[in-house]
Amino acid sequence: MKEIQSRSNPLFRELQQQFRHAGKPNHQIWLEGPHLCEMWLHHLGAPDWLVFAESSAGHAEILLLRQHVQASRQICLSDTLFKSICSVPSHQGVLMVATPQALDSLVDLNHATVLLDRIQDPGNVGTILRTCAAAGITQVVCSLGTAGCWTPKVLRSAQGAHFVMRIEESVDLATRLQMARQNGSRLPILATALEGAQSLYDEGLPKEAVWLFGHEGQGIAPELLALADQRLRIDHAQPAIESLNVASAVAICLFEQWRQHR
Fold first, then answer.
1. Is residue 139 located within the same domain as residue 248?
2. Which domain-ending residue is among 72, 98, 124?
3. Which residue among 39, 84, 99, 122 is least packed, with the fewest CB closer than 10 Å?
4. Is 89 a residue whose pLDDT tops 80?
5. Is residue 234 part of a domain?
6. What's the confidence (pLDDT) of residue 260?
7. Domain count, the chain
8. What are the DSSP calls for 144-210, one per residue?
9. According to the model, what pLDDT value does residue 240 have?
10. What does the pLDDT look like over 4-57, one tens digit per residue?
11. Using 50, 70 and 90 to split pLDDT, how confident is the model at 232?
12. CB distance 190 to 230 below 8 Å
């Protein structure tokens, strides 16, 4: 185990650098808190580093994590140093630095998939990933402009959904949908929209579909909406409320689909 008390320590400086770029393309990811660390160990094995605060080193849940990581890959930081590399003020005393696994192939749109078009808020993206996993959707494809799925805030919001899903980022969604059709994909493309849409509750939903959800303010880009087989709206009680938060809309649509076919 490596114990670090000084900001000038080369390994701590390396951690600081990694923290600044955590979750960005070609950089390591930052898993904060015992739950995410446990999920990583369960699904993907040992991380690059297990990092914990000095005052937390003896806590039962952290001792359990330490049993599954080689001592040479454990770093104990002073509480002050640990706090400086956490993305939340009330940290839980432990984090992992890990390298995400690259997809071995493109996500196949012949299976149920959610497409995210320029959804910018990390909290929304993480909540959507968690909802997808809960509703049995294990594939998500994100456009350019969507918040990075492996950034710390998205990871915290998703609460482990990443580890049971295939996630593809920075994709030209229109091109991907057109390619899928050319290659014989038969799943219907369902899109949420306000205009020219049928009520979600008036339609029998297919058991599997490619769902398309769009930007918090602008909705789905017109060129993508034009590729949808069906446009759906979520009816609600107050006409003054034009639309719902996109993460809420995803939950309503996916669980209505699940309800119809459970």
1. yes
2. 98
3. 99
4. no
5. yes
6. 95
7. 2
8. TTSPPTTSHHHHHHHTTGGGGSEEEEEE-HHHHHHHHHHTT--PPEEEE-SSS-EEGGGSPPPSS-E
9. 63
10. 999 999 999 999 999 999 998 889 999 999 999 999 999 999 999 999 999 999
11. very high
12. yes
Residue 105 lies in a domain: no
- Whether 103 shows a pLDDT value over 90: the answer reads no
Q: Are strands 139-143 and 230-233 parallel, antiparallel or unpaired?
A: unpaired
Beta bridge partners of residue 142, listed in sequence order: 116
> Amino acid identity, residue 202?
D
Share of the chain above pLDDT 90, in %: 85
User: Do residue 252 and residue 128 come from a single domain?
Assistant: yes
Identify whether residues 89 and 192 lie together within a single domain.
no
- Cα separations (Å) of 215 from 124, 165, 206? 10, 22, 24
Domain with residue 165: its CATH number is: 3.40.1280.10
Reading the block at residue 2, the tokens are 């490596």
Q: Indicate if 76 and 183 belong to the same structural domain.
A: no
| Residue 106 located in a structural domain | no
What distance in Å separates the CA atoms of residue 24 and residue 152, rounded to the nearest whole number? 10
For residue 107, being part of any structural domain is answered with: no
Say if residues 114 and 250 touch (Cβ distance below 8 Å): yes
Q: For residue range 116-144, what is the model confidence (pLDDT) as tens digits?
A: 999 999 999 999 999 999 999 999 999 99
How far apart (Å, rounded) are the C-alpha atoms in residues 19 and 176? 32
Pairing outcome for strands 230-233 and 189-192:
parallel
Q: Which residue has the tokens 């939340």?
A: 88
- pLDDT of res. 99: 93
Q: Assess whether 48 and 144 both reside in one domain.
A: no
Q: 58 is written with which tokens?
A: 């003896």
Q: What range does the domain containing 213 cover?
A: 113-261
If asked whether residues 240 and 208 sit together in one domain, one would say yes
**Residues 8, 124 within the same domain:** no
